[in-house]
Design goal:
Elements (H helix, E strand, L loop, with lengths): L1 H15 L18 E5 L2 E6 L13 E7 L5 E3 L4 E2 L6 E13 L2 E10 L4 E8 L7 E2 L6 E2 L9 E4 L5 E5 L4 E6 L11 E3 L3 H4 L9 H8 L7 E8 L2 E10 L2 E9 L7 E7 L12 E5 L2 E8 L11 E7 L29 E2 L2 E2 L1 E3 L2 E5 L3 E5 L6 E8 L4 E9 L6 E6 L6 E6 L10 E6 L7 E9 L11 E9 L1
Antiparallel strand pairs: 1-2, 2-3, 3-4, 3-5, 4-23, 6-7, 7-8, 8-9, 8-10, 11-12, 12-13, 13-14, 15-16, 16-17, 17-18, 19-20, 20-21, 22-33, 24-27, 25-26, 27-32, 28-31, 28-33, 29-30, 29-32
The protein binds beta-L-arabinofuranose.
């Protein structure tokens, strides 16, 4: 009975929020090149970190997020950056993390001190780090720009494959240690049969597309996985002089690959790239990709978005549309445990920061901003709300509303000086209206007699007390 009630409430919650945006899934930072991974029932999301205001891919670090329900994402900060690799000079580009025997291997690509692009690997005992350079040198390096966008897949027989490449697609079999290989690097031949089009040396994709009218071509961003004994290679292809997402399949992890067509072709934003990953979670299939839908987004300000899809009965992937609504929750959030303030379904006028003492927290909170948390299950009712906050000067007000930024207000905390912007104190408020069942919760930031625009307070975690 309880399950049916929960399902009905979740459906109501999903319908209620069908008009509100869920894509891009992270609003506090730009998050290009998403790579999903599941560990112990939790979805982890590894991304890059585009820097607003630049006119190239000038990233210097990577981010980790996680979710239990596909809509509320917890920010775990940036446990790997260019500083983690002594041999790296610039360009923290696309990466993917995989787990093997309880260790986490985060394959990254960077520009080296000698001006090539190379693939490296960082290792950790936890999916959110801390990570450290596993080798102290690149795993794959040649005097070329081809070595970008690593994807790693471990087959059922234990053999791991590393694929990568821009304009060319390479693979090598990794040893069991996941940080070395003995065999030779193989280049997958580009052909119309494999990738829908082929390159001629010296000609750009744009020139080729104009002159030879090819329909698609392998560009970059490979993503290898297996489903029902079939291997799938998704990649950034080329359509109308901008990237699309396309895929090929094979009966073997090393090919030959057979082109299957384009998955996502619409580009309603002006991001040239769209790098993606595909994964199943809690009985549903998801496409992760990036777009430029955040304010100030663009080709160098890209953000992770997610769409749910269903495979066709023959195992083929349908065409998938870009949406603002994104995906629905596949679980509820327990308000009676400690919840990190940086667990969010949507946020405005705030960002996240991290320090050694507190870890990640919500910072730069401004009047009129808010954090939305979806599908919070209050059960039979709550009596008290507590929040851990910090403010160097008078901090304004933290209000708690239900189901809308202007919905029923159930609690509010006036935030005094706590002794510093990183001196967190837990403050409590009684619940003023009765609350039960599943609701979206909005933490709304108000300034009282505070000049609009100045930072109000920092916010680390929150919880409710059961009635
Ligand atoms: O994010 C930098 C580069 O842009 C990635 O390595 C490519 O896949 C493209 O998304």
């Amino acid at each position: 009975m309880k399950n049916i009630k929960t399902i009905l409430a979740l459906i109501a919650c999903s319908l209620g929020s069908a008009v509100s945006a869920q894509n891009p899934v992270i609003q506090t930072h730009f998050t290009p090149d998403p790579a999903p991974m599941i560990y112990k029932g939790k979805m982890y999301l590894y991304t890059g970190d585009d820097q607003p205001g630049f006119d190239f891919y000038t990233m210097t670090k990577w981010h980790v997020y996680s979710s239990d329900d596909m809509v509320n994402w917890t920010d775990h900060g940036s446990p790997v950056s260019l500083e983690s690799f002594s041999w790296a000079r610039d360009r923290a580009w696309a990466a993917q993390c995989v787990e093997r025997n309880g260790k986490f291997y985060w394959y990254i690509c960077v520009q080296t001190v000698d001006n090539n692009m190379a693939i490296g690997v960082a290792v950790s005992d936890s999916p959110a780090g801390p990570f450290k350079d596993a080798l102290g040198k690149p795993l794959v390096t040649t005097a070329t720009w081809d070595n970008i966008d690593p994807t790693v897949f471990i087959d059922d027989d234990g053999q791991a494959y590393l694929y990568w490449g821009n304009s060319k697609l390479f693979y090598v079999k990794l040893n069991k240690d996941m940080t070395s290989f003995n065999g030779k690097i193989t280049e997958i031949p580009q052909s119309v049969e494999a990738f829908g089009g082929m390159r001629r040396p010296g000609k750009s994709d744009e020139v080729l597309q104009k002159q030879e009218k090819f329909d698609d071509v392998y560009v970059e961003g490979p993503w290898l996985y297996k489903r029902n004994k079939q291997y799938y290679m998704m990649y950034a292809g080329m359509t109308n002089r901008t990237e699309c997402l396309s895929y090929a399949t094979s009966a073997s992890p090393t090919g030959p690959w057979k082109y299957q067509g384009k998955i996502m072709t619409d580009q309603p934003t002006n991001s040239f790239t769209n790098h993606g990953g595909i994964i199943d979670y809690k009985g549903k299939s998801y496409l992760f990709y990036h777009n430029a839908l955040l304010p100030n987004g663009g080709s160098y300000g890209r953000s992770t978005a997610i769409e749910e899809f269903k495979y066709n009965p023959d195992g083929s992937i349908p065409k998938i549309k870009i949406t603002k609504e994104g995906v629905n929750p596949v679980g509820t959030l327990n308000p009676y445990q400690r919840n990190e303030a940086e667990t969010m379904a949507w946020s405005e006028k705030c960002t996240t920061s991290e320090n050694k003492k507190t870890g990640v927290y919500v910072s730069d909170i401004r009047t009129g901003g808010y954090i939305k948390v979806r599908a919070v299950d209050f059960g039979k009712g709550a009596s008290e709300f507590s929040a851990s906050v910090a403010a160097g000067i008078d901090g304004g007000i933290l209000e708690v509303h239900l189901d809308d930024v202007k919905g029923t207000k159930i609690a509010q905390i006036e935030i005094p000086r706590t002794g510093g912007w990183e001196e967190f104190k837990t403050l409590t408020s009684k619940i003023s209206e009765s609350v039960s069942g599943i609701h979206d919760v909005y933490f709304v930031f108000q300034g009282k007699n505070i000049t609009a625009g100045r930072k109000l307070f920092n916010f680390d975690h929150w919880s409710f007390k059961k009635k």
